[in-house]
Design goal:
By secondary structure, the protein is an all-alpha fold. It has a domain at 22-88. The chain has helices at residues 5-9, 19-48, 50-97. Helix 2 (19-48) packs antiparallel against helix 3 (50-97).
Length: 100
């Protein structure tokens, strides 16, 4: 039963998950926010002075990579939780098919 995104979004029985389809978009948004944050750090650094700007120019990529790593781990944790739920429901379905 593979419904479209909007059918799944407005499915009040919650038989399918939207999050597993949207996780790539959430990860992309996280990367964009991390990049904007790194650029803001650099801009703020140069606003405070040349030396401060050079320091932020060196620190911003590290902050960017740490933030992207945290977003990636967060997304993977969400996917793992949803896959556990999907696999558990499959196991329950297999167990109910067998006669007792």
């Amino acid at each position: 039963m593979n419904k479209g995104l909007f059918q799944t979004l407005f499915d009040f029985s919650f038989t399918e998950f939207v999050t597993t389809r949207m996780i790539k978009i959430l990860f992309f948004v996280g990367i964009v926010i991390a990049a904007l944050g790194a650029l803001a750090l650099i801009g703020k650094g140069f606003n405070d002075g040349f030396f401060s700007g050079i320091i932020m120019l060196l620190i911003a990529p590290i902050v960017f990579l740490i933030y992207v790593l945290l977003v990636r781990v967060w997304c993977e944790m969400i996917i793992v939780i949803f896959r556990i739920a999907e696999n558990t429901s499959r196991m329950v379905g297999k167990n109910t098919d067998q006669p007792s």
